[in-house]
């Protein structure tokens, strides 16, 4: 009898290899291949399939119905609520608040008349009840189960009344009889996810899967699970701080990169109605090295403080430390400041931080980062009540960015009076703020230098 063949799956990219190797040639990552049992043989017999109905591309389309969770920030991230017959994957570090948020959402949905089942594979029923007592939701008609066997879970869901929402915490603890490997392996995670997603599509229930994350911050298990589900949400933030960010990195029924902001309190997660106040509320407008960036997270304008510290270095190779931004983009920006503006950083350590634990990936932050760097380097504080946004090119010109009007309106609402923005693409901007349109990065460096001369002149007069 022939020995069944095994294959190895990369947990980073999902590539399949016939034998183990230290490095995945598809994505270049090391030690990411995990053994997977033999796949079931595919049937090649003709006439076994069913005829699929083909439809024209044109026709009426309707927005999918939504199940609102009663938590406004969660509904914002999901695109307006949960879509029936959809599957969501929620990931985050241990203790970040995944189970807390989902239990609060389950209680809110159950109070609204929805049939909600919470399946815990990590905690006993009593532990879930203790958390519900702490959150004040013990009176909600949520049904609980402590089970890890997928076949038993599916049988329970199919035999009872129609289920509206199923929460599985977590998918790495589930196991099925179709595979002999241990729970949490590639095969078990994939098969368990497939069975639960098939349940969602066939019954119309919303299935929410909780996923562990690796040390790199990625959801553990094969990346193909992220491709299988309809939405992937990540919890971000430090467990030692009280603020949490819920970010949508994939959403088939709404905008991606949308964020929701929460505050961890004794009675659970509370929504932060105005997150811009959170990220700029404790800023120091007098000290040099800070600037306010008017960014966009999905459809939401968000003001955040960026902080830079440029100090004389005693090292042969100066340090470059970045928190919340791309280090490669910082290196590019420093090179532009040196080559195009004559501002030297070669003998200085550079530290950059985004306040509030937020991570910025938008190129529009270039101008705000540059302003903070120039401010720290020259010792001149940025103008108070001012915001910055714009992309810096390698030639030193400031490129236009999208959604300028929304950024300016958010700044005006929070009491800012001046905006530094690209000269290009801002002709149609109408706002109550004073607009300072910048064509090149050298123009902003010259403005800081002029203010530095004025400041030194005032200091000499006082002496």
Automatic annotation (TrEMBL):
The keyword Phosphoprotein does not apply. Residues 349-463 are annotated as: Lon-protease-like. The lineage of its organism: Bacteria, Pseudomonadati, Pseudomonadota, Alphaproteobacteria, Hyphomicrobiales. Belongs to the RecA family. RadA subfamily. A motif (RadA KNRFG motif) lies at residues 250-254. Residues 63-213 form the RecA family profile domain. DNA-dependent ATPase involved in processing of recombination intermediates, plays a role in repairing DNA breaks. Stimulates the branch migration of RecA-mediated strand transfer reactions, allowing the 3' invading strand to extend heteroduplex DNA faster. Binds ssDNA in the presence of ADP but not other nucleotides, has ATPase activity that is stimulated by ssDNA and various branched DNA structures, but inhibited by SSB. Does not have RecA's homology-searching function. Plays a role in repairing double-strand DNA breaks, probably involving stabilizing or processing branched DNA or blocked replication forks. One of its GO terms (cellular component) is cytosol. Pfam families: AAA_25, ChlI, Zn_ribbon_LapB. The middle region has homology to RecA with ATPase motifs including the RadA KNRFG motif, while the C-terminus is homologous to Lon protease. The keyword DNA damage applies. This is DNA repair protein RadA. It comes from the Bacteria. One of its GO terms (biological process) is recombinational repair. GO terms for molecular function: ATP binding; ATP-dependent DNA damage sensor activity; damaged DNA binding; hydrolase activity; zinc ion binding. It comes from Afifella marina DSM 2698. ATP binds at residues 92-99. Keywords: ATP-binding, DNA damage, DNA repair, DNA-binding, Hydrolase, Metal-binding, Nucleotide-binding, Stress response, Zinc, Zinc-finger. InterPro entries: AAA+_ATPase, DNA_repair_RadA, P-loop_NTPase, RecA_ATP-bd, Ribosomal_Su5_D2-typ_SF, Ribsml_uS5_D2-typ_fold_subgr, Rubredoxin_2.
């Amino acid at each position: 009898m022939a020995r069944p063949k095994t294959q190895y799956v990369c947990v980073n990219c999902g590539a399949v290899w016939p034998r183990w190797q230290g490095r995945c040639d598809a994505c270049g990552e090391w030690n990411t291949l995990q053994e997977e049992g033999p796949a079931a043989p595919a049937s090649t017999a003709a006439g076994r399939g069913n005829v699929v109905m083909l439809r024209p591309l044109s026709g009426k389309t309707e927005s999918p119905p939504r199940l609102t969770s009663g938590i406004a920030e969660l509904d914002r991230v999901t695109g307006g609520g949960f879509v029936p017959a959809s599957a969501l994957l929620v990931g985050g570090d241990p203790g970040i608040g995944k189970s807390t948020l989902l239990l609060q959402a389950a209680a809110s949905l159950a109070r609204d008349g929805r049939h909600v089942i919470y399946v815990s594979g990590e905690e006993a029923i009593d532990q879930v009840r203790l958390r519900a007592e702490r959150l004040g939701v013990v009176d909600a008609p949520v049904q609980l189960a402590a089970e890890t066997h997928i076949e038993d879970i599916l049988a329970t869901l199919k035999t009872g009344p129609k289920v509206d929402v199923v929460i599985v915490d977590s998918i790495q603890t589930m196991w099925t009889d179709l595979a002999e490997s241990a729970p949490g392996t590639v095969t078990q995670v994939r098969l368990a996810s497939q069975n639960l997603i098939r349940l969602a599509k066939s019954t119309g229930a919303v299935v929410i899967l909780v996923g562990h994350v690796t040390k790199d911050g990625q959801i553990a298990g094969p990346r193909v699970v992220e491709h299988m589900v309809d939405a992937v949400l990540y919890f971000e933030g430090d467990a030692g701080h009280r603020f949490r960010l819920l970010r949508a990195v994939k959403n088939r029924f709404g905008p991606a990169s949308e964020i929701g902001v929460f505050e961890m309190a004794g009675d659970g997660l509370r929504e932060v109605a105005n997150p811009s106040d959170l990220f700029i509320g404790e800023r120091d407008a007098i000290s040099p090295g800070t600037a306010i960036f008017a960014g966009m997270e999905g459809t939401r304008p968000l003001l955040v403080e960026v902080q830079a510290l440029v100090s004389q270095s005693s090292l042969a190779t100066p340090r470059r430390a970045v928190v919340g931004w791309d280090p490669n983009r910082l290196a590019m920006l420093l090179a532009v400041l040196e080559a195009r503006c004559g501002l030297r950083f070669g003998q200085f350590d550079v530290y950059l931080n985004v306040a509030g634990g937020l991570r910025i990936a938008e190129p529009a932050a270039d101008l705000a980062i540059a302003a903070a760097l120039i401010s720290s380097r020259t010792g001149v504080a940025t103008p108070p009540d001012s915001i910055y946004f714009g992309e810096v090119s390698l030639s030193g010109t400031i490129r236009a960015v999208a959604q300028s009007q929304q950024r300016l309106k958010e700044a005006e609402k929070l009491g800012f009076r001046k905006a530094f923005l690209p000269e290009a693409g801002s002709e149609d901007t109408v706002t109550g703020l004073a607009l300072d349109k910048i064509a090149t990065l050298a123009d902003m460096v010259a403005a800081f230098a002029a203010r530095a001369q004025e400041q030194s002149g005032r200091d000499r007069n006082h002496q």
